[in-house]
Amino acid sequence: MHISHLSTRDALGSLHSSSGGLSSTEAQRRKAEFGANRIEKIRGEALWRQLAREFVHFFALVLWLAAGMAFFADYQAPGEGMATLGWAIIGVILINGVFSFWQAYRAERAMAALTRLLPQQVTVLRDGHARRLDAEQLVPGDVVLVQEGDSVPADCRVIEADGLRVSLATVTGESLARSRSADACDEADVLAAANVLLAGTAVVAGHGRALVFATGMRTEFGKIARLTQAGHEGHSPLQLEIIRLSRQLALLSVAIGAAFFLIGHLLGLPFWGNLLFAIGIIVANIPEGLLPSVTLALAMATQRMARHHALIRHLPAVEALGAATVICTDKTGTLTVNRMTVRQLWVAGEALDLPLPAELLERCRPLLDVARHCHSLREVSEGTRLSVLGDPMEVALVELGRQARDDAGHATRVHEFPFDTARRRMSTVHDLAEGRLLYCKGAPEVLLPLCSQVLTREGVQPLDETQRERLRQAQEEMAARGLRVLALAWRRVDGEALRIELESELIHAGLVGIEDPPRPEVAEAMRRCHGAGIQVIMLTGDHPVTACAIAREIGLLRGETPRVISGHELHHLSESQLQFALDAPEVLFARVTADQKLLVVEALQRKGQVVAVTGDGVNDAPALKRADIGIAMGIGGTDVAREAADMVLLDDNFASIVKAVEEGRAVYANIRKFLTYILSSNIPELVPYLAFVLLPIPLPLTIIQILAVDLGTDMLPALALGAERADPQVMQRPPRPRGERLLSWPLLARAYLFLGVCEALAAMSLFFLVLAWGGWDYGTPLARLDPLYLQATGACLAAIVVMQVANVLACRSPSESLLTTGVRGNRLGGNPLLLWGIACELLLIGAIIYTPWGQTLFGTAALPAAAWLAMLPFAAALLLLEELRKCWVRRQARAAANAAPTAD
Questions:
Q1: Which of 205, 563, 733, 784 is deepest in the core (most CB within 10 A)?
Q2: Residue 270 DSSP code
């Protein structure tokens, strides 16, 4: 039998404790047995292992193999530059690993945040006396004193309560404060037990004593922490694509290199020279700059998103958000402002919206007086202003009551009948200038039977059955709007003894509808999500009626029959039943717990959805971590939620997600742009080796020159493509299919068979042209340091770079003309990084060709001006051919669009 089901006396006896607490000796013994009251960290993978893993994935292993072969080749044949190549490849591996390693610290910080959330000091009874101790010293059987403003240090059974109320928002997600009493409770779920205080929750009103029955990881808070730590953190869609792409390119490179090594062997090439060529082919086909380019492009996107109040903590989350098909959002503090507000009154037979006009204040004065005085708040002075602290609902009522008059100094409270779950009402008795009055508030269905009169426009009149029915209908109408409805009443006491029976023969003052209002900008955000093909699902700890009303107000629910699933129903659904339930066009989950949120996220992912989850409480942390992207609130969110999330909304504004989604979609499109750009240069890097093996010519391009392109000249223009602005229509299209690949056949065909061929033609033409200018005879070998050879190979390298300048302009859009993108406002002047990238690319190739250190390191010689002029027609031809291809693509798209209605 759970401790919540026991009486106070039996609860104390079950833990061998007393109302005066434990002795110090017994407390020390129990601490040795149960351990400290703190969130223990599950032992995870050592940081050195996480670091090592970044250097042994498949892509890195291929590069390690290439570096090892280069060093071995240098050992066998010194002076060929193979050692320089080996060190360059190792530098690439180190850069890629370092950029990824920092992500391993996220879980470490999450656990530190969980510890900070628990209170540091508590008041506990030891040896019959109250003492202030560290929360870690608590053990089962301790008796703690709690009061308004305290955080609960462990799971406790209430043994004394005086107007005690707690906010469960950080654990259950429920926005309304709940009262707590010392009475035994039959509730099976400990989260709903009215005599239990949960670790990590906050006391918002009253005071009391509580018996600790669970500490540390045994608390409900600890169970959530365990879920957060144990939750599997899968790869984002982009990470999966990069892994797949890296393996494909690496395997392709090794296969081509091995094939040409075999061909060279059959042609009778020397072994070490043949090995050199095989390594060159492998290096030429592996885009060494891909991983750094992707990482840096994502980093730049995080800076742009930060300007829209979205802080990215995990780089792949940038693109994952753009791929999101479903957003699972909490209600309290995410869609709403997390502040209770009086929305509507029902007074004298009339519904009144706020703010009240001046002419209605007198009519509503009795109700406003009850709202002003009937509370258990603590009033504090802030300069000249009087403010109140405590239950947000009562704060909202007091703020309403202040519209009537400022007479706090003329009302003296003489007694209080506190709120509890059995009575579902509270009353206060005050001495005022006009006499002694009792003010009462509570659930309408509880207060209405206690009333014998009602306030009408004509004054106070007897409460007949017709008026009772009108009040019940008014209550239902207000509840249908998602408002929490309270009834307010009063009566004169006339010097009678203060006893509970005074809560009878009351005068009904009216009804008050209270809500946590939605953020004003959320409705537009919902509209944009729907337009972008993103489904939004609310998961909240609040009541289904309240959740549905808010969902309709913000436009989340638009149909007549949405699928509303409560936590109780979800508990009884099998995995397959839950997945079928998620097929409904509109789904909403209410009264759900932390593990149930996790179940919904996992079910959506099994259905192939890319899931984003928003939340702010401790209860959201496991789902935030398991989702493809977790989004936490920066202001109202807990440390736990922020540390478990991939993205933090700095303004707690759901609408900021929409801008982040737009940016994420742009990132994916931009990655494909610079992927096309990077892969295009592989063909002009590969063709020289093929030509060298198959033809009696010198090697047109060295391996170190290939690295000069992949890790030098190509980097800044590639990053510039990653900074391109989002297409204005990007949020009017559905999310890309989960199975869509970054490396698609159309992209490969464009990069390898079209752009790459154009560049290879230009590079080989310039190589032969410079050789011809120098009087070279076909088939004549040239020494590695021959000035003519250095000039010819430098011309081949320069031609690739010049063609890449034209290519970066062509890659700005896969289908739109360069002129059209300029008219659309995305011209070069709108992307300064592109201009800087091109300028740096040209300066770098100039330094390689004309400076002594560049010529020595990369094996080049100065080129005549005629060589540069000879490259320009090739660049112009590439742009012209690409414009013709784009024109054909647009024409095909228009034809498909025109044919679609006919097919219907």
A1: 205
A2: -
What per-residue confidence (pLDDT) applies to 356? Answer: 85
- Residues 413 and 534 grouped into a single domain: no
The reply to whether 689 and 569 lie within a common domain is no
Contacts of 364 (CB under 8 A, 6+ apart): 345, 347, 352, 356, 404, 510
Phi, psi at 459, each rounded to 5°: 120, -160
Domain count, the chain: 4
- For residue 284, what pLDDT band results from cuts at 50, 70 and 90? low
140: confidence class by pLDDT, cuts 50, 70, 90: very high
Give the model confidence (pLDDT) of 349-384 as tens digits.
899 988 888 888 888 999 999 998 898 876 655 555
Taking 60 as the threshold, does the pLDDT of residue 822 lie above it? no
Output the CA–CA distances (angstroms, integers) from residue 418 to 152, 179, 391, 558, 824, in the order listed. Answer: 21, 10, 13, 41, 66
Q: Please report the sign of the dihedral spanned by the C-alpha atoms of residue 639, residue 645, residue 649, residue 655.
A: negative
Q: Report which secondary-structure segment, H or E, holds 391.
A: none
Q: Supply φ then ψ for residue 433, to 5 degrees.
A: -60, -35
Q: List pLDDT tens digits, range 330-351.
A: 887 778 877 788 989 999 889 9
| pLDDT confidence of residue 874 | 96
Domain that holds residue 490: 341-390+398-515
The pair of three-digit structure tokens given for residue 62, joined into one six-digit string: 């291929």
273 three-class SS: helix
DSSP letter for each residue of 2-55: -GGGS-HHHHHHHTT--TT-B-HHHHHHHHHHH--SS-PPPP---HHHHHHHTT
Rounded to whole angstroms, the Cα distance separating 169 from 94 reads 45
Amino acid (one-letter) located at 773: W
Look at residue 572 and give its three-state secondary structure: coil
Q: What whole-number distance in Å separates Cα of residue 462 and Cα of residue 870? A: 103
Average confidence (pLDDT) over 398-421: 74
Whether 688 and 646 share a structural domain: no
Beta bridge partners of 124: 131, 144
Same-domain pairing of 608 and 685: no
Tokens of 242: 């990069």
Note the pLDDT of residue 506: 94
Same domain? For 835 and 878 the reply is: yes
Backbone angles phi, psi at 125, to 5 degrees: -90, 120
How many whole angstroms separate alpha carbon 882 and alpha carbon 893? Answer: 16
Angle at 344 between CA 418 and CA 525, to 5 degrees: 110
Q: Which candidate, 597, 598, 582, places its Cα nearest to that of 535?
A: 582
Please report the sign of the dihedral spanned by the C-alpha atoms of residue 607, residue 609, residue 610, residue 613. Answer: negative
Report yes or no: 413 and 373 within 8 Å, Cβ to Cβ: yes
Give the N- to C-terminal CA distance of the chain in Å, as an integer. Answer: 64
Rounded Cα gap, residues 900 and 904, in angstroms: 7
Q: Write down how long the chain is.
A: 904
Model pTM? 0.65
| Domain-located, residue 236 | no
Q: Distance of CA 882 to CAs 505, 804, 812, 867, Å?
A: 87, 13, 11, 24
Segment 78-101 shows an average pLDDT of: 70
Q: What one-character-per-residue DSSP string does 71-128 give?
A: HHHHHHSTTSSHHHHHHHHHHHHHHHHHHHHGGGGHHHHHHHHHHHHS-SEEEEEETT
Query: Does position 161 have pLDDT exceeding 50, yes or no?
Result: yes
Neighbour tally for 316: CB within 10 Å? 24
**Tokens read off for 604:** 């959506």
Cα(202)–Cα(191) distance, integer angstroms: 14
How far is residue 798's CA from residue 848's CA, in Å, rounded to a whole number?
Answer: 9
Q: Are residues 100 and 56 in contact, defined by beta-carbon separation less than 8 angstroms?
A: no
Same domain, yes or no: 598 and 745: no
Residues with a catalytic annotation lie at 330
Q: What mean pLDDT comes out for the span 636-656?
A: 73
Q: Could you report the per-residue pLDDT of 505-558, keeping only the tens digit for each?
A: 999 999 999 888 888 888 988 998 888 899 999 988 777 877 888 898 899 998
